[in-house]
Specification:
Layout: E1 9-15, H1 26-39, E2 43-49, H2 69-78, E3 81-89, E4 92-93, H3 95-104, E5 123-130, H4 135-148, E6 152-162, H5 179-201
Parallel strand pairs: 1-2, 1-3, 3-5, 5-6
Antiparallel strand pairs: 3-4
Length: 209
């Protein structure tokens, strides 16, 4: 048996809903389902709802004055997998998701002794929910941003649900999870775990300056 298949992995999901806890959130629900699928492959982890924390605007690791991002960043650095979950607002990722990407921008200047960004070897995946089409556009935005700051993405690294246009049903209001979303979440999980274990066993080569 390939010992890489038994490598323990840790994940953190950042939920970028605009709704503070304890109110229900469709983004939170899909993130929970994704983490459950990851757990089926031996991945442990936790979920952080960003708006419950005082994450300051900026592009530095620590914006000072009680900024909550350094603690969240530590969870990301301790994880092998980052799941970013967002609703669609006006055809775009939420402003909270954009803030997360802006804070991750600081990682561009953080490298190890061989010139690699500290996020190299970490695998990212995306969850998107919304009431109208736009999941592909939103995931494309997040994919590019996450890749820019050093994360690797597996094939089919997004799970999403979008409702019919011009109506108000939320993902969390559905009687059951649609088969297509359930299948997509499982594919996200198996591919993301596979890639994370491979990168843990065979890190990226040193970067050339």
């Amino acid at each position: 048996m390939d010992t890489a298949e038994n490598t323990p992995l840790r994940a953190v999901a950042l939920v970028c809903t605009l709704t503070p806890s304890p109110a229900p959130s469709s983004s939170q629900l899909l993130a929970e389902q994704t983490m459950a699928s990851l757990a089926e492959h031996g991945v442990t982890g936790e979920i952080v709802r960003i708006v419950d924390h005082d994450v300051r605007a900026g592009v530095r690791i620590d914006m000072g004055d009680g900024d909550a991002w350094p603690g969240i960043r530590e969870k990301i650095m301790d994880a092998d997998i980052l799941v970013l979950a967002t609703p669609i607002w006006l055809g775009h990722p939420s402003s909270v998701a954009q803030r997360v990407l802006e804070r991750l921008d600081a990682e561009l200047s953080e490298t190890d002794d061989e010139g690699r960004m500290l996020t190299y070897g970490k695998v990212a995946a995306v969850c998107v929910v919304g009431n109208e089409d736009g999941a592909h556009k939103v995931s494309a935005d997040l994919f590019q941003g996450l890749n820019d700051v050093g994360f690797t993405l597996a094939p089919n690294a997004v799970s999403y649900w979008v409702g019919e246009a011009m109506q108000g049903t939320d993902y969390q209001d559905l009687d059951k999870t649609p088969d297509a979303t359930r299948s997509t979440t499982r594919t996200l999980a198996v591919n993301t775990v596979h890639l994370a274990r491979r990168l843990k066993a065979a890190p990226y080569p040193p970067s050339e300056g």
